[in-house]
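Deliverable D5.2: sample structural annotation.
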Amino acid sequence: MASNSFRGSKRGRHAQANHDVGDFNCSLKELRSLMELRGPEGIARIQECYGDVQGLCTRLRTSPIDGLGGHADDIARRKEEFGPNVIPPKKPKTFLQLVWEALQDVTLIILEVAAIISLGLSFYRPPDAERENCGKAAGGVEDEGEADAGWIEGAAILLSVVCVVLVTAFNDWSKEKQFRGLQSRIEQEQKFTVVRGGQVIQIHVAEIVVGDVAQVKYGDLLPADGVLIQGNDLKIDESSLTGESDHVKKTLDSDPMLLSGTHVMEGSGKILITAVGVNSQTGIIFTLLGAEERKEGQEGQTGQEKYSQDGAGVEMQPLNSDDEGEEKKKAHPKKEKSVLQGKLTKLAVQIGKAGLFMSGLTVIILITLFMVDTFWIQGLPWIADCTPIYIQFCVKFFIIGVTVLVVAVPEGLPLAVTISLAYSVKKMMKDNNLVRHLDACETMGNATAICSDKTGTLTMNRMTVVQAYLGDRHYRKVPESDLIPGKVLDLLIMGIGVNCAYTSKIMSPEKVGGLPRQVGNKTECALLGFVLDLRHDYMTIRNEIPEEKLFKVYTFNSVRKSMSTVLKNADGSYRMFSKGASEILLKKCCKIMTASGEAKVFKPRDKDDVVKNVIEPMASEGLRTICLAYRDFPPVDGEPDWENETDILTGLTCLCVVGIEDPVRPEVPDAIKRCQRAGITVRMVTGDNINTARAIASKCGILHPGDDFLCIDGKEFNRRIRNQLGEIEQERIDKIWPKLRVLARSSPTDKHTLVKGIMDSTVLEPRQVVAVTGDGTNDGPALKKADVGFAMGIAGTDVAKEASDIILTDDNFSSIVKAVMWGRNVYDSISKFLQFQLTVNVVAVIVAFTGACITQDSPLKAVQMLWVNLIMDTFASLALATEPPTESLLLRKPYGRNKPLISRTMMKNILGHAVYQLTVIFTLLFTGEQIFDIDSGRYAPLHAPPSEHYTIVFNTFVMMQLFNEINARKIHGERNVFDGIFKNMIFCSIVFGTFIIQIVIVQFGGKPFSCVGLSIDQWLWCVFLGFGCLLWGQVVTTVPTSRLKFLKSAGHGTQQEEIPEDELEEMEDQDEIDHGEMEMRRGQVLWCRGLGRIQTQIRVVNAFQDTMSPYEGLETPESRNSIHNFMTTPEFRIEDSEPQIPLIDDTEGEDDAPTKRNAVQTLPPPSTLSAALPPRPGSPLHSLETSL
């Protein structure tokens, strides 16, 4: 693109511009080529074409100070000319595609094939052979004319398969729809600050247009490309585009180009937007990848589908499989698959194997019995004409076998998990939890530790100055302005006005009589409020000295813990104002202002006095202490070296120390008490001073008087966890963390170290599951590392939100407790569903198996089994997975990672109910005809009409399941199973609805369902036997679990020790340790995955080579870090296990059901790639190798 620049004469340029730019003296092509350049090249182009940034603003008809006018027609024209700031998302799958995917289920395919064979054979009539010659089972039907109805069973099976497929597809479709809703919700949340008509306003990211003047600040994710107009100490992380982890300093004279998708790591500034949407750097990547994917899609679609079926294609994910315009995926440190998912996948595989074994056995026994009966006991010869009838029998047996398999395989599990999670996510939104990753919601239920920020999470984040130390006096409340010496007051007001970010301001209250609104950094707002309390207006200072006139700004960061602004005076001297953490800034002061308004020497002894008599008493009341100071640089000393910060930030004169109050949120102490009762340890990790932190922790209830808990600061923490060589040792962390409750003056690295230390610890038996809250850019690593990262929706930076799993839309700690409740509820919902499903599985499989072996026919027919399966899977998962959470969930300890899904109590319930149900079914099966005085349905010949006997068996079976569904609502041995049943209307309506459909099936189902209508008496008996389940449930509950020594729990998570070492090494490259996959045949999966990975990489490299051919000759070593670099594709980022700042989150499983095995492509060693494609210098592959 760089070659498209306009290098002609000025007149030629104008002619070109007028030719294709319409209203603006700048074309889209011109701006795109400008943004391709970096550093000096970019500056040269701006100077050559526009003179300076001011010239570019003029050409784009915008003002660097007032921005755009904001008129609707102007904005619309710009969108038309330069495009909107939207990257079109990937098309969702159509309903038909989802139907096709649902049809790929192996068990369904087997059923379809069997049903079609059965259909075909049912129309075949043997020519002359008498049916009697083919054996007893085949005869005696012709007379009743029932053989004509033989096709019904095959057709009914096909119909039920269609039902199952439609239900599955509909569920997938609604799930995808929900995800898109969630996605758009996250995108709508994203706003950006721009200047329009001289007013600073926040607009949705999609509303930004070329020519807008945007304000960027620490923590922003840039939504479009732009050129810097003015910057203060601006540093950008461009690793998402270039792969370089070093922060790039942006200034007007070195590198003014800011690119979309990059993060502001420090400082602030104003930029002129020059490219949006598909024309921005992120957009260009997406367009390249999208085009390539479409091209490949047409050629190799079938291959791709073939792969994705067998677990080998896990790697073959589309390159831009990401719905969020602004976001690009990024590999992150390996996280285990969610606890629940690991357990479920393992359990499902084990149940599936058992089901396969049982169904195979059923088919073999049925065929053997038939052969023995026909050819040995009856002693019939093999007649060729009877072959189709024999085949028909075999197909019937095969269908019975497959039906056993269908009932045994719990395909409702993924559905239950999805429904439960999706329902929870929807409800959690009302509880101010915006869930970005589905499994985070469930992991939260297992949380054992929460590391929380203080400001804004535990406190209200509404700060006010309540005490001040000024002119040798400690004022317990804000002093009147006439008590302060004039010189000190002027310096104070000037210092606070210019040395607070211009984005922080106090606005008038929204309601009459309400509190003034604080916009921007809350600590700065407290200081600005202090100026207003002193009856002065900070805006007059800001109008006199606009942001452009500030000479230099050292913005606040976690290392400096202070912020300084330098002003240049008319006489050539400089004055610097500083503010920051009091104990840090006081050390750098050598003078202090006195009551007379003069500066006096500030000796070390005086500093100790101030710390002891002022700072510590303020801190012990829970106040945050801030020191305000200034320094003059006289012209005689010459120009200072502004880059040498240590020299600049010394010899300060202290103006005052203020104590800022941030009251504890009223609901927090109760929320923390509930957490502690639920077995969750709450730790406070804050940047505040240790006394302030201790005071707030006591108010919140994290610390209690007389507790033997640790409360230390970052320096002491590091001293204790590091050895003599300065390396962190896990054993040392293990000595500290169990007792640690408050970590003060901590850096983001300390936070990350603590979280990692707790997670890696093996001191306490179940591995700790850690949740972390964070709001700053540098909280990214800790948020990413933790099992669940909570970002603040209001105070959080974009970077923190990207790294998090859940966004707290109200920044409130008590919302985290709600997340814990929902998480535990999900876990319990899945367990309830499992208890119900496994009871049905055990009973149905045993009935089908023994019935088939004894009577050579399954008492429950294929279509009936499919109906039972529908009740079990879809309906039950809906009913049991939507139970609302109750407070009682917080009265038990967390489950932990190794707690089995099916506890011994649940196993007792499953086996107990199975015993009752089997007793009833077998009694009805073998003596039912005598009890009800009806014809026996056993040993019926092929195509015999349905019997009353078997209809009663089927009906009683379904009734027992319905009542057992009510039993399944409680899994911890509670007696009252009806508790809160009417709060869940979904449950009530499903149970009632199933009952109505069952009546219709029995009374009017006829031949397809193998049913005949029953009398009222028979119905009442069926319902009574079903109701017996509830009574029997009380008996089962009475038996103490501890007495039943033989009971085993099931559904454990895979232990790390169970994994062979060579496989652990193999899994090191993966993003997730997937326990289900380990159950599969490992060699096959690894081989297919390797193949898939190499294919993907070759396709991508080819794509990039195709796209790049025009620029081949132009590429220079410097431009290898440009947009076209191979490293730019998000999937091919290579990171250490602990990246510096994992910025953009991986929205991996968001479009898949939680049980699907996803894996992000990871790079093989360069040797593999180079073997696949010889690199040539200047090619993206070559630059990939050099960076590797």
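Annotation notes: Residues 28-85+208-290 form a domain with the Calcium-transporting ATPase, cytoplasmic transduction domain A fold (CATH 2.70.150.10). Residues 588 and 649 are 7 Å apart (CA to CA).
The annotation will be released with the project's public dataset once the embargo ends.
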